[in-house]
Amino acid sequence: MKKFSVLFVLIALIATTGITKAQSPSALSGKTFILVMKDGSGHGEEIKDQMSFNNGQVTSSYLALYGYPSATVSENARSNGAGFTFTATGAAGTLVYEGALEEEYITGSIQVTNKSGQQSTMYFRGATEAAWKAMTGQTQVAE
Fold it and tell me: Which end of the chain is more exposed for a tag (fewer CB within 10 A), N or C?
C-alpha cells in the first residue's frame, strides 16, 4: 500500500507540474540581415531591405515604409541553419516569405498578392550586417 501511495504522489506531481519540451534555440533571433529583392520575371530594379528577427517576430524596414507591421515568423531547424516562413499583411496586399538561413546568409522567395488579387513572385538574398559589409563595404541599406 505504501508503494502505491508513493507512486500516486509521483504521478500527481508530474501531472500538476507538467513536463515541458525543451525548445531549440532560434538561429534567427537577435540577427539583422541586409538583403536585396527582385521580381521573379527579372524586370525592374533590386529593392534593398533590412530585416530584423527577434523573439519570433520579424520587422522589415522596407515593408514598414508601406505600413506593414512586424510579423510572426515560423522557424524550423536544419542541419546547416534554419528554414523560415512568415506572412506580412498590409493595405497593399499580402506577402508570404519562405526562406533559408545558412551560416550568415539568407535566400528565399516572396509570393506577393496585391489588394486586387494579382499574384507575382519575388526572390531575395542577403547577409548579416557584418557579412554584408565584408562583401560590399556598405553598412546600411540606404547607401
Answer: N
